[in-house]
Amino acid sequence: MVVPPSHGNNCVVPALEKGLDVLELFAKSGQELALSQIAKACGRSISELQRVVPFLEFRGYLIRNETGVYRLGSKLFRLANAHPPFKDLLIRALPLMHAFSNRTGESVHISTIADDRLLILGETPGTGYLQLAVRVGSTHDPTTTISGQVFLAYLRQPEALAILSRHGKGRAALPHLEKIRRQGYEFHESYMIKGVFDLAVPVLLPATSILAVLVCSWVEHQVSKPKIKRLLPALNQCAAALAAAYEPIPERCSTQKALARSSQAHLEESA
Fold first, then answer.
1. 28-66 burial, b for 16+ CB within 10 Å, e for fewer?
2. Which of 13, 170, 194, 216 counts the highest number of beta carbons within 10 A?
3. Domain ranges, ordered by start, for the chain
4. Are 236 and 214 in contact (CB under 8 A)?
5. Each residue's pLDDT tens digit, 89-101
6. How far is Cα 250 from Cα 253, in angstroms, rounded to an integer?
7. CA 54 → CA 48, 120, 156, 182, distances in Å?
8. How far is CA 63 from CA 26, 40, 78, in A?
């Protein structure tokens, strides 16, 4: 049971709160549950839920089998997909990502931070014989992924520190984030899969407001300086085109263009 914030007595709607507790339980567990199990997991009595759960079944959110056990129906999924929060971003990003993959032969995926988690929004496959894929819709600790660290690097420091602290990290992570911000990109072996390397760039709107992160990944035997030199400008171009899709006036796109110049200069200096 989630305790609501204190905003006055009008904040709490008991029946709605119980229904949301039940739906959130099924969404997280992915299991079939009897009424007694639902009540126990929600921290409530059976009598509190004995009308709520059947009503959720009546409305199509839950499905009850012949033994009286409930599971989550597809209605919640259909409602969520009727207006996904990042639909507009994907509509703009996917054609540009496909162009990147066709041009370079490499896969690319786009992610953002939502509810303190790195969320994989979409990907386009490469055209080579060996392709890397990520699971769209999966979430990860942003402090332990290349794309998450790039996103954090471009948040305002108080926002970044708040997320870091909620993941058990602190100010010690800030120098690395500042390094990413200075160079304008991050290239590193994946923290999740040994032998896979990630090249990540931010998608920036005016005043360095970060929208998303684009990441190109490949396996170890392909890694070389010439490959990075070829992919970084193409990835920056993709990010700049996506930023321009939101802010088409050239002056407002200068943030992304300046970032591309900075990252390219850093790469040439480190060569």
1. eeeeebebeebbebbebeeebbeebbeebeeeebbebee
2. 216
3. 9-80, 84-270
4. no
5. 999 999 999 999 9
6. 5
7. 12, 34, 46, 56
8. 11, 19, 15
pLDDT classification of 252: cutoffs 50, 70, 90: very low
CATH topology for 9-80 is: Arc Repressor Mutant, subunit A (1.10.10)
**Which residues are CB-neighbours of 131 under 8 A, at least 6 positions away?**
107, 125
CATH 3.30.450.40 correct for 84-270: yes
Which residue is listed with tokens 């049971």?
1
According to DSSP, the residues that pair with 186 across neighbouring strands are 200
Contact (CB, 8 A) for 179 and 129: no
- Pairing label, strands 139-140, 186-189: unpaired
Residue 29 backbone dihedrals phi, psi, to 5 degrees: -80, -40
* Residues making up the chain, counted from first to last: 271
State the pLDDT at residue 271: 58
Judged against a pLDDT cut of 50, whether residue 205 lies above it is answered with yes
